[in-house]
Amino acid sequence: MEKELVERLEAAVARLEVHAAAGSRSSVPSIDLDGAAFLDPAISAFDDLMSGSLARVSAAAGKIGGKVLEATKIVEEAFAVQKDLLVKAKQCEKPDIMGLQEFLKPLNELILKASALTEGRRSDYFDHLKAAADSLTALAWIAYLGKDCGTSLPIAYVEESWQMTEFYNNKVLVEYRNKDPDHVEWAKALKELYLPGLRDYVKVFYPLGPVWGPAGSAAPSSAPSTSKAPLAKAPAPPPPPSTSLFSSENEPLQPKQGMSAVFQEIKSGKTMTAGLRKVTDDMKTKNRTDRTVDVGTTEKDSRASSFSFSKTGPPKLELQMGRKWAIENQIGRKDLVIVDCDSKQSVYLFGCKDSVLQVKGKMNNITVDKCTKMGIVFTDVVAACEIVNCNGVEVQCQGSASTISIDNTSGCQLYLSKDSLEASITTAKSSEINVMIPGAGPDDDWAEHALPQQYVHAFKDGQFTTSPVSHSAG
Are 313 and 326 in contact (CB under 8 A)? Predict the structure, then answer.
């Protein structure tokens, strides 16, 4: 393997020397993109990733067919686009934020295309489609431009993106572990494609982001060269994408004027009251007859309108007093993340619906109140994780938890890690509580246990004894 790699590198050096001897003085090397990709070890390794792990996902999807196969084909297209972007990046100079948006538009369009499959009426394979669509965000590691770009390093970004995807991928494993091995194979292959597949690839070749061409190279947004050099084979750069990969939060903020503008105006010597009209007595509110109203009726109407707030309220995600994370009224948000937390802080979720929250780090307490179809993924909890007045929630503990309390909740799916198997689970006025336990080995399926919700109370020896109802088949 090493000998073959050395031979390929020597061939690449030989080609560069030929071009240099020809007297080319262009600031951009005239190298055939196809040849450069063939000789680049990073691109060859990416081809190996696609022909190995990605091919395994595609083979399993081919056996399933339908929407799963359609979503997997989009994943194949996205990896092919990323390969083209890696080749193209070395021919372009490092762009700014706007140039990066144009550069990544093909990848952005495929992410939106995969997300569109999860919208509308839910299909039987919704978890498959959601896992495939969410996994594509890991490919956005290529958007890393430096420590001030607002994103994590590529290795950490791939791992964080998969943690959000794993929630739905595990649901596929649990649902089909005893039904269809093809679905189980698809879910396992999808995970191995990213962890360790893509993560290890980025770790070896691009730990600090993509490799860009030297300064003075063609910009990503520029038109292709009109010369006869082989570089003209490169496709034209795409137009700017939508805001799914880039939001206004990543754009440079305009400088605020603030008090400096006020002082500047004072120093200029301009009259501060210039342009103001003089208010005469007949213009004052107390002297205007057209403003006379019936206080009794108007006051009641104003009071009624002032308190007619919406039941939902504005969405909120903030740290209050440095101790309590408040997440309220989040609807349809699958990317809620809390980082930089410590064991003295707590999390309180209220009124959220169809959203997913990930808590990274150890927290003192987590409370989920009046939430519907909510997913919570956390690492460690010191005191307790409480689910109150909820409907159809899913909670996953990746670390340890001493106490889990479920009160007045209909439908709760608990995923416990091996470190949290000794947790004390308390339920009250709740139904449809299922606990998922990991298998003995890393490749073993998860085991599902239903907690009882019916009990028998019998009076014996002067006191009542309580035991869960057991159903016998016969």
Answer: no
Quote the CA–CA distance of 136 and 35 in Å, as a whole number: 28
Residue type, 340: D
Tokens representing 422 are: 């000794």
DSSP H or E run through 215: none
Unique residue bearing structure tokens 């420590």: 147
Of 361, 365, 435, the C-alpha closest to 398 is 361
Note whether 348 and 365 are within 8 A (CB).
no
Q: Which uninterrupted H or E stretch holds 39?
A: helix 33-39
The encoded tokens of residue 49 equal: 């990733």
What does the DSSP assignment read for 318-364? EEETTTEEEEES-BS-S-EEE-S--TT-EEEEES-EEEEEEEEEEEE
Give the separation between CA 355 and CA 393, rounded to whole angstroms.
Answer: 10
| Of 326, 362, 331, nearest in space to 344 by CA | 362
Q: What are 465's two structure tokens?
A: 């004894």
- ∠228-232-238 over CA atoms, to 5°? 155
Q: What are phi and psi of 365, to 5 degrees?
A: -155, 145
Residues 6+ apart with CB under 8 A from 197: 49, 52, 53
Q: State the pTM of this model.
A: 0.46
**CA 88 – CA 361 distance, rounded (Å):** 38
Is the separation of the CB atoms in 106 and 86 below 8 Å?
no
Question: 10 Å Cβ neighbour count for 465?
Answer: 10
Q: How far apart are CA 65 and CA 62, in angstroms?
A: 5
Cα 375 from Cα 412, distance rounded (Å): 10
Q: What interhelical angle do 181-192 and 126-135 show, nearest 10?
A: 10
Q: How many CB atoms within 10 Å of residue 52?
A: 12
- Whether the Cβ atoms of residue 359 and residue 379 lie closer than 8 Å to each other: yes
Indicate the helix (H) or strand (E) that contains 126.
helix 126-135
Name every residue whose Cβ is closer than 8 Å to that of residue 329 and which is 6 or more positions away in sequence: 312, 313, 314, 315, 316, 350, 351, 352
Task: Look up residue 316 and give its amino acid.
Answer: K
Please list the ranges in the chain whose pLDDT falls under 70: 1-39, 216-278, 284-286, 288-312, 471-474
Cα(435)–Cα(445) distance, rounded to whole angstroms?
Answer: 14
Token pair in block for residue 77 = 């297209």
> 373: helix, coil or strand?
strand
- Distance from C-alpha of 299 to C-alpha of 284, rounded to nearest angstrom: 21
Is the separation of the CB atoms in 219 and 92 below 8 Å?
A: yes
Question: Helix, strand, coil proportions of the chain in percent (round to 5)?
Answer: 40, 20, 35
| DSSP letter (8 states) at residue 470 | -
The strand pairing partners of 355, in sequence order, are: 374
313: three-class secondary structure by DSSP: coil
Instruction: Look up residue 274 and give its two tokens.
Output: 């210039």
Check if the beta carbon of residue 177 is closer than 8 Å to that of residue 151.
no
